[in-house]
Write a structure and sequence with these properties.
Helices cover 33% and strands 17% of the residues.
């Protein structure tokens, strides 16, 4: 029954662009693309670059996926195309609708990491990473002794900063040669190579179970890289990026200014070499504005040479053969930037100038005047440009001074001291590899290509910039505005858009990437947010070719999760680095743990087949990164252990940086640090500066928490709960949902130094539910008596005087941190351990392993054992016992198989009023609402542990007892289901309350899905082999068909076989219990108002015949046959004795159903001979008991036909207020008959309404009481169609001697007259289109009332109405006649009418009941409104616009039928329309809390609060449409 393969479904919707949405999947998963509601029934093709089996990945190579349609039917709402995911990386998909791209996105498939000699898997959540600055590892032959520290500390991944040759700045990230191993790792007598590094990495993977990753730096190279001098086109230089020339001039001016300040030349202007205060800063600002900017005149790079421009303009004006240029008002004169950025090199468009400034004659004065106007405009444009550059200069000064402030004055800055050439006022933005000259001489170099190509831009980062924009490209003014926080050692690389734009650079960097991927299992993308995406994609594609399961980590500072996702999805980033150092207090640190992984404790079990949900990027959560400031400075040394523990308890990858565990009390600088890391030496003493072991810093505790982190990840402890115990104490719980064991880590953080800050001795008591098995770890940060910390010259040493006391795997009573632990009971079966602490000092942690109370553990095991019948997921942690309730030994499917569909109605559904009849009701959830159904359809927690539903389950057993008790109170197979649930709930009640929602849900889902299978097995093959939509719709049959406490149908003939019986609970006598169809829920579900003749027979084909419930259909047909009176079937059934015979159409729907029964049911014609017990053998007889007068069904049919031909005329019994408080007297007079000339059935009068459009006015205020809104008297189109269908069918049967009558005999003028079925059939056929079709030709002779026509090419709604204009109203009723009697219609005319109906009446879910162009149209139904508006008051417009669902079924079926006659193209288009319309019903069905389709909606598909939420005929017609498909 359950899948074990993990399948995720991605619904595609029109124009849904999900490029910024992250979808994470694992290898081995199947991804299914399915069409969402907006695309159902449309021609959609899905393309992806995920490679076909056996092929390699090419990012640009897309292929289409084949659709699979599991039902192989025309209803393909379940079709999907799929990918079996077997390789990691980022893959793109998009889909076309026809030939147009309609949406798309990316999927990211995680890599599978493997370690050890056995190549076992290392799940991403088990990763514990430590960062090493490679240059601090020393010669390669000493690495092992330094890296062993990571192994002994329990890390399973090492991140090396780049191992390549470093640039002159010695920064770890400024690389001089991307292809060469750093020569520092070799010795004079031994040169090491990449292969030597590879051997060590492989050894660590195999023998130490440690994976290695390293950085890739794509953005920049060291300024002293040899290759960049050989290939200057790889950088942003002044030849390929001339837009940087003004910024370069400014940069050189600032450099000269800085040198002058260093040499004391500005002392007299108030700027000494040592900048110490605001006065100095103000003087700098003054000098820049007054001396530097006027000298370098940057605006000239953006301005026009006025003299030159005017002269050129004058020349053009005076040309003899000058063509007149037309002026274009949209074209304005503007400065065109000189692409070479020369001073005053910009121009203006002379064509625009000539068209704008036109001399009034050709004389010299006019020419001069014109040139003056032109000069004035160019000067204005230059002035505007001057202003713009001024704004840029303002920003440049602010950034300049901000930099000086941080570097020289700020308390948290580096305090660089006096200005020197080594430490200038500001970092240079550009290289200058030439001898220094005067600024003006230097400027001449920018126009010499062989020199300017070596003037290159440095790289850096821009605060708050858009990471998707390259700040060095044209259009950005970052360098000019000095907004770059510049790394003055690294040149920014210029890739262009594709490898052809800079072949050497792409090839060089690809080779670099391939070296990295050859020797390492993963990469860290340095400065990822500034790396051009297309470059990173290209490089990672190359890396994954060599290392298919490449682990990619990155740091992103984009400032938004959405932007993060762009990088994660495009690059296939496996983990994003997240920093605990960003937390400003312990509360925030705890929140980050909750944010970055896991699901809440007690979450519901998810099925293997489920929707693909957007994810947040997988986290590599680090207590500190190598870029962070030192936490000992920032917080305190005592915080290292608790913060590391909190981070390690997160359900994601975790990490740290070498030096944190040894308590190095300063930041280990990636630029200036040149000492080596300490080595592992078990025998070293704490005061040894070159060695470390378990006595050093927090290493012993780190080893324990790393091992624990790996155990939690590997063993499925993926549920997380974070409890902020007080302002410093955070408790993190990791819980395993299969064995229900928890690890609870209580950490007392020390963000403030405990020696100088107050921490309370009083620690709050903690309550831990369950039984504490052991203390896994208790560790306290303590001082020891050694020499204080002194920075060593050769080794990166930590604080020797602080260490941790560690005790592992001890019993609670041995703990030094816990004072005492008592056991308290919270509930009858819930045990809580109360923990009182005595030594939980700041810097301490204690981790408990907690199991459920043994009694609860057994109960969970038994529950899981019985749940394995529903899903293999529950096998782990299950427990088989012999002494369970005997009923649990029976598989639930076996109990369910004994249920009938009528019994399933009671178990699954039944609304409040249905239950009320039995003395019950629906469950009411406090703080929320009552459930819609008493049955299991609604008793399902929403997948939200905070929902009031779950609160109710956790608070007590009321709901649990309600579910089982309600079923046990019934008898037979229903009670057995109740007993099985009760036996399961016996164990459910013994587990902790926080787990009850999860297991209650698991039990009910298992039971519910089994019951649905049971229902479908009893239905037709159409349902069993149908789509999910068909199956879910068919449950409407179970929802609507039931047996109440009182039988709703009159009794059938006792001589009829296989009628269901039951024992009456009160009289103990046998009574019939046939199902009846409720018209709609909740308003028409019980008592007298449950059963209506018209509703029953409009719904019966879809609800019972299409679903294969033939016996129930037969019984309903025969029960209503028994109530025939006056030749009519009752509208309100009222069990037959309270029936009202006030509708003209029910009898024709009943006849249609008999016809459908005969055609659809095997041996269906047998029904014609079935005995009907006549309740009213004559019009005036009292109701007779069943069996008194029986006659075969065919006689009853003949009577109905005969009575109509004879003419029906009577007054309703008990006419007056007692049966209808609104009807006027004349309305109680019922007439019906058949027109002798046309054969049309007619009837009704202006004061009653005998068709389905039966709204009677109720408002005195609006004066419409007793007036029908839509009398539809005369011959209503659908009744004529139904009559034609019946006559044609009876004619066929009589010809084949199946129906014994060939004619009807009537009295006319005292004589017996016979009318044969053949004649009657012909009359309708000959007259229908002549009298019902509204011709396209205004002067058509058939048209009696041409002045009333307002829509041509349609079919009238009626013929011969007392108000003739009503005949001409466009309504959807003619489509019913088209389905039941298509032979009446000429296909071309029918098609035109259907097109008009589609254009004017088709709504999202239903059909407008009246043409919106009609003056009385109103699409919003409000039955409570009582005002003066005659057309609206008290819902008078019930059928004058609101969109009813059931006519849409007939509209769609008519479209399908006639489209086939209109040709293949029309047929295919219609199929798409039908599927698209049906998809909206599918969506409504799935989302409706009632799991049904409504009676009607307001206009444009808006919800109507007065409608039944689920209606039998609405469900039926959609099922019929799907059946027709």
């Amino acid at each position: 029954m359950a899948h074990s393969k993990q399948i995720r479904i991605l619904l595609l919707n029109e124009m849904e662009k999900l490029e910024k949405t992250l979808f994470r999947l694992e290898q081995g998963f199947e991804l299914q693309f399915r069409l969402g509601p907006t695309l159902q029934g449309k021609a959609v093709t899905v393309y992806t670059n995920y490679p076909c089996p056996g092929e390699t990945f090419h990012r640009e190579k897309f292929h289409s996926l084949d659709w699979e349609n599991p039902t192989e039917k025309e209803d393909d709402s379940d079709k999907y195309c799929k990918l079996n995911l077997q390789q990691s990386g980022s893959f793109q998909y998009y889909f076309l609708q026809g030939n147009e791209k309609s949406g798309g996105g990316y999927i990211v498939v995680d890599p599978i990491l493997r370690v050890g000699t056995d190549n076992h898997m290392l799940p991403l959540d088990c990763v514990t990473l430590q960062t090493f600055l490679s240059k601090c590892l020393g010669p390669l032959d000493e690495w092992e002794s330094r890296l062993r520290v990571a192994k002994e500390s329990g890390y399973n991944m090492i991140h090396f900063t780049p191992l390549q040759t470093l640039g002159h700045s010695r920064s770890c990230y400024s690389l001089a040669d991307q292809l060469e191993l750093n020569p520092d790792f070799s010795r004079p007598n031994r040169k090491y190579t990449w292969d030597d590094v590879g051997h060590l990495v492989e050894k660590m993977k195999r023998e130490w179970n440690i994976l290695c990753i390293t950085d890739v730096v794509y953005n920049h190279t060291a300024a002293n890289s040899k290759w960049i001098q050989e290939h200057p086109e790889s950088a942003y230089n002044l030849v390929n990026s001339p837009h940087l020339k003004p910024a370069w001039v400014l940069d050189r001016a600032f450099w000269h200014f800085s040198c002058d300040v260093a040499e004391g030349k500005y002392k007299e202007k108030g700027i000494p070499a040592l900048i110490e205060n605001d006065h100095h800063m103000n003087c700098i600002r003054k000098v820049i504005w007054e001396d530097i900017f006027p000298k370098i005149q940057l605006w000239e790079f953006f301005q026009v040479d006025v003299y030159k421009a005017v002269e050129q303009f004058r020349r053009l004006l005076t040309q003899e053969n000058r063509r007149e240029t037309k002026s274009d008002p949209t074209q304005h004169l503007k400065i065109m930037q000189d692409p070479e950025y020369r001073r005053l090199g910009c121009t203006v468009d002379m064509n625009i100038a000539l068209a704008t400034f036109i001399p009034h004659d050709s004389g010299p004065a006019a020419i001069e005047e014109c040139c003056n106007w032109f000069r004035k405009r160019v000067e204005e444009l230059n002035s505007e440009m001057h202003q713009l550059i001024n704004h840029h200069q303002e920003q440049a000064v602010n950034c300049f001074l901000g930099n000086v402030l941080y570097e020289r004055l700020a308390g948290h800055g580096p305090k660089l001291g006096p200005v020197t050439r080594k430490y200038p006022l500001v970092t240079r933005y550009f290289t200058f590899p030439f001898e220094e000259m005067a600024l003006s001489a230097e400027e001449s170099l920018i126009h010499l290509p062989n020199k300017a190509c070596f003037l290159m831009a440095y790289n850096g980062w821009v605060m708050g910039d858009d990471p998707l924009r390259n700040f060095a490209e044209p259009g950005s003014n970052v360098y000019l505005r000095r907004e770059l926080i510049c790394w003055g050692d690294s040149v920014k690389l210029r890739y262009g858009n594709k490898p052809e734009d800079c072949p050497y650079l792409w090839a060089h960097m690809k080779k670099y990437t391939e070296i990295t991927a050859t020797y390492f299992q993963g990469v860290r993308l340095d400065n990822c947010h500034s790396t051009p995406l297309h470059v990173a994609e290209y490089m990672l594609d190359a890396a994954r070719k060599l290392q298919p399961n490449l682990y990619v980590v990155a740091e992103l500072f984009t400032g938004s999760e959405e932007l993060d996702n762009v990088f994660v999805t495009r690059l296939g980033i496996s983990s994003l680095i997240r920093e605990a150092m960003s937390a400003y207090n312990s509360h925030e640190e705890g929140r980050l743990v909750y944010r970055y992984g896991g699901e809440p404790v007690g979450s519901f079990v998810q099925p293997c087949l489920r929707p693909l949900m957007p994810a947040i990027a997988h986290a590599l959560f680090m207590d500190i990164t190598h870029d962070n400031e030192c936490p000992i400075v920032h917080r305190s040394a005592y915080d290292a252990l608790p913060s590391a523990t909190i981070v390690s308890m997160a359900c994601c990858a975790s990490g740290s940086t070498r030096g944190y565990d040894e308590l190095v009390p300063h930041q280990i600088s990636v630029v200036s640090e040149e000492r080596f890391y300490t080595k592992w030496n078990p025998g070293a003493s704490p005061s040894d500066t070159g060695d470390v072991n378990f006595q050093s810093g927090i290493i012993a505790a780190r080893c324990a928490i790393n091992k624990l982190h790996q155990e939690l990840g590997a063993k499925g402890f993926f549920q997380v709960y974070v409890d902020q115990v007080d302002e410093d104490i955070v408790a993190v719980t990791r819980h395993s949902p299969s064995i229900h064991q928890s690890l609870v880590a209580v950490s007392r953080t020390a963000f403030r130094n405990p020696k100088t800050s107050f921490y309370s001795k009083e620690v709050p008591q903690m309550c831990i539910p369950g039984k504490i098995e052991e203390v896994v770890l208790e560790a306290r940060t303590v001082e020891r008596n050694t020499k204080p910390y002194k920075k060593d010259e050769h080794s990166i040493n930590g604080m020797p005087n602080i260490t941790v006391e560690v005790r592992e795997h001890i019993q609670l009573n041995e703990s030094k941190i816990v004072k005492q632990a008592g056991v308290a009971t919270k509930g009858p079966k819930e045990y809580i351990q109360e923990i009182e602490f005595e030594n939980l000092s700041p810097g301490s942690v204690i981790i408990f392993r907690v199991s459920l109370d043994p009694h609860a553990q057994v109960a969970v095991g038994i529950l899981r054992n019985h749940l394995t019948q529903f899903s293999p997921h529950f096998r782990s942690g299950s427990l088989a016992v012999d002494n369970a309730d005997p009923i649990l030994k029976i598989p639930f499917a076996s109990i369910a198989s004994k249920l009938t569909l009528a019994e399933l109605n009671q178990i699954l559904y039944r609304c409040e009023s249905e239950e009320h009849e039995d003395g019950g009701g629906c469950y009411d959830i406090p703080n929320w609402s009552a459930l819609k159904y008493a049955g299991l359809q609604e008793i399902r927690p929403k997948n939200d542990l905070g929902h009031p539903f779950c609160d109710n389950l956790r608070s007590g057993d009321w709901m649990i007892d309600y579910v089982s008790g309600r079923l046990i109170s019934r008898s037979g197979a229903i009670a057995e289901v109740g007993k099985w649930l009760q036996a399961m709930f016996f164990y459910l009640k013994q587990i902790p309350r926080y787990l009850i929602p999860c297991y209650f849900d698991a039990i009910l889902i298992g039971v519910y899905t089994t019951l649905l299978d049971t229902a479908w097995k009893q239905m037709s093959s159409f349902v069993q082999n149908g789509s999910t939509f068909v199956k879910h719709l068919s449950l409407g049959s179970v929802q609507m068909c039931g047996v109440g406490k009182l039988p709703a149908l009159p009794r059938l003939s006792p001589s009829l076989l296989d009628v269901p019986y039951r024992l009456n609970g009160i009289t103990k006598e046998k009574e019939q219990c046939c199902v009846s169809i409720a018209a709609g829920l909740p308003h028409f579900s019980s008592g007298l108002f449950r059963c209506w003749g018209r509703d029953t027979f409009i719904a019966l084909r879809g609800i019972l015949l299409v679903t294969g419930r033939y016996l129930e259909a037969r019984n309903i047909i025969l029960a209503f046959a028994g109530t025939l009176r006056h030749g009519l079937i009752p509208n309100l059934l009222g069990e037959g004795t309270y029936a009202r015979y006030n509708c003209r159409d029910a009898v024709w729907w009943w006849l249609q159903c008999i016809q459908d029964y005969c055609k659809m049911v095997p041996n269906g014609l047998d029904i014609l001979k079935c005995p009907v017990s006549r309740m009213y053998p004559t019009d005036d007889s009292a109701p007779l008991p069943a069996g008194t007068v029986d006659q075969p069904l065919f006689e009853v049919i003949q009577e109905a036909m005969q009575r109509h031909m004879q003419g029906i005329q009577f007054r309703e019994r008990n006419a007056g207020l007692q049966i209808d408080r609104n009807m006027k007297d004349e309305g109680f007079n019922v007439t019906a008959g058949v027109d002798e000339k046309t054969g049309f059935v007619y009837g009704g009068n202006r004061l009653n309404c005998g068709t389905w459009m039966d709204k009677m006015g109720e408002s005195d205020r609006a004066r419409n009481r007793g007036i029908p809104a839509t009398p539809r008297d005369g011959s209503a189109v659908e009744i004529v169609g139904l009559c034609k269908s019946a006559v044609r069918w009876l004619l066929e049967l009589s010809k084949n001697n199946i129906f014994p009558y060939h004619e009807v005999r009537v009295k006319r003028h005292g004589k017996i007259v016979t009318v044969s079925y053949d004649e009657w059939n012909r009359k309708i056929q000959d007259n229908f289109e002549r009298l019902f079709h509204v011709s396209e030709d205004p002067s058509h002779p058939n048209e009696k009332h041409p002045n009333l026509v307002h829509k041509r090419g349609i079919y009238k709604d009626s013929y011969g109405a007392s108000s003739p204009w009503c005949d001409y109203q466009l309504r959807p009723n003619f489509t019913i006649a088209m389905v039941v009697a298509p032979e009446l219609f000429t296909p071309e005319k029918a098609w035109k009418a259907l097109e008009m109906a589609e254009k004017k009446l088709l709504g999202p879910l239903g059909m407008k009941t009246l043409d919106p162009d009609d003056m009385v149209y109103c699409g919003i139904y409000d039955n409570a409104l009582d005002n003066d508006n005659y057309n609206l008051a008290k819902g008078f417009n019930y059928h004058q616009g609101p969109e009813w669902l059931w006519p849409i079924g007939y509209f769609l079926r008519a479209k399908l039928y006639f489209s086939k006659l209109m040709g293949l193209e029309t047929s295919a288009k219609t199929m798409l329309l039908v599927k698209n319309v049906l998809s909206r019903h599918y969506v409504h069905l799935e989302r409706s809390p009632w799991k049904g389709l409504p009676e009607l909606t307001n206009e444009n598909g808006q919800h109507c609060p007065f409608s039944c939420e689920t209606q039998a005929w609405s469900i039926a017609v959609i099922l019929e449409t799907l059946y027709d498909l």
